[in-house]
Amino acid sequence: MGRRPWTAHELLDLVLDAGSFESWDEPIDISGQPEAYRLQLEAAAARAGTDESVLTGRGLVRGRPVAVVVNEFRFLAGSIGRAAAERITAAVRRATAEGLPVLASTASGGTRMQEGTPAFIHMVEISRALMAHRAARLPYLVHLRHPTTGGVYASWGSLGHVTVAEPGALVGFLGPKVYEALNGEPFPTGVQTAENLAAKGVLDAVVAAEDLPMLVDRALGVLVDAPTLPRLDRREGEPSGHLSAWGSIEVTRRADRAGVRELLRHGASGTLRLNGTDEGERDATMLVALTRLDGQPCVLVGQDRSRQSPTTPMGPGALREARRAMRLAEELGMPLVTVIDTPGAELSVHAEEGAIAGEIARCIATLTTMTVPTVSVVLGQGCGGGALALLPAREVIAAEHAWLSPLPPEGASVIVHGDVSHAAEMAELQQVGVSDLAAQGIVSRIVPEPADDTAAALAVAVAAECAAALRRQTHGRAHVLAS
Ligand SMILES: CC(C)(COP(=O)(O)OP(=O)(O)OC[C@H]1O[C@@H](n2cnc3c(N)ncnc32)[C@H](O)[C@@H]1OP(=O)(O)O)[C@@H](O)C(=O)NCCC(=O)NCCSC(=O)CC(=O)O
């Protein structure tokens, strides 16, 4: 940690628009507490300048109304006793009732040792209130400050839709001093840090408190704001269809082919990248983001062609990240976009032991049972079960040269002919190209690839088509709900 830790009041001043904070906190009666503890509480209040270890209320972040729950570490190490726990639970319930997103900022030694089990058990009530909040499709954003440990990290610190920690923050379940005393050896260094946990896919990002307003604004710009009018050029036109299936395969394997990154760069705005499964797994080949695709808010998950190679194939963790995106969309009532672009999933010991086949099955199972609008985009290579895992959305659109096959055409050639020389013939025979996919009803729309065929133009055309497809479904759903 570089600077002195933020106090709760400093954090509120930093994050909320000036003068917008309105406290929800009721006075706390400590008269019934044992004298020694009462004296500790009084001393803590005098030191911290707060009446408890948590402050709650509402305010504006860049004009957006939010409920806030902020830990004060200087009050008995931000520890959570019954009064603090009840304050958090009440604030979350009020936020739910008022339809407000919740932003929590933690800094704590966990359950308050002076209060023990009756306080500890309140982790359950806090979690219950937060899950009711999430069930009401309201956002919960978490910011972990230095240090965040114990029952705070293991309840309201870990239940966010988006979870970030400040640079250098100690974030861990058991405090390192406690570990060392109990185990007779120090806990390994560099593990309980914001940076390590983000690298491991436990946290979404490392974000300084100064940058929290931007993060909250971005997240709520997708999670709360209504769609805006389309602005991208739809690039109407007929598919040229002049290439064979093999010709298309060669086009999609070109280094300058547009991928999901180009789709976001040229066709989206207000993108907030998420990171990992939030369960301790991360695979750079899958990209997950909250974004506005041509003005349409959505959760987007896509296979990143730029990160896949023979040495870094798309593994089972990538598919678990995809399922996190699916869960998020379903829970938040957000449209989901999946982007298919893979030369195939990982074939290895790691993949088998990580349940790659099961993850493909679970992705298919999840996608086919989602109730929110879903669109999949076959953008480039659609090879094998790894591609199929992201395919079965309500509407499937495909770029003109995209393709879908059970395995690489070279593999099919080996199976049937004993060598790879019949790959082009097998691609044709196996009907992998988009015209065949459309004829079979697998693909409902083909996005013509612009004649100039630049990655940017393709990305713009696909983004516009995809957003339009989502709008059609969202509109249709509203129609059904209204009737
Ligand atoms: C959070 C810390 C890393 C911060 O370290 P620092 O070196 O900055 O500060 P410190 O250790 O001197 O602590 C500052 C003061 O806060 C007190 N203090 C720390 N944690 C406390 C807690 N949970 N309850 C009550 N008091 C606590 C310390 O005794 C000390 O008091 P004084 O100033 O009087 O000396 C460390 O305090 C720590 O490891 N705390 C315990 C974390 C933990 O393992 N919690 C699990 C609790 S059980 C739980 O939460 C349930 C669960 O795990 O599920």
Automatic annotation (TrEMBL):
InterPro entries in alphabetical order: AcCoA_carboxyl_beta (IPR034733), Acetyl_CoA_COase_Trfase_b_su (IPR000438), ClpP/crotonase-like_dom_sf (IPR029045), COA_CT_C (IPR011763), COA_CT_N (IPR011762)
Domain CoA carboxyltransferase C-terminal: 226-472
One Pfam family it belongs to: Carboxyl_trans
Entry keywords, A to Z: Transferase
CoA carboxyltransferase N-terminal domain segment(s): 1-238
Gene3D superfamilies linked to this entry: 2-enoyl-CoA Hydratase, Chain A, domain 1
UniProt name for this protein: Acetyl-CoA carboxylase
Organism: Terrabacter tumescens
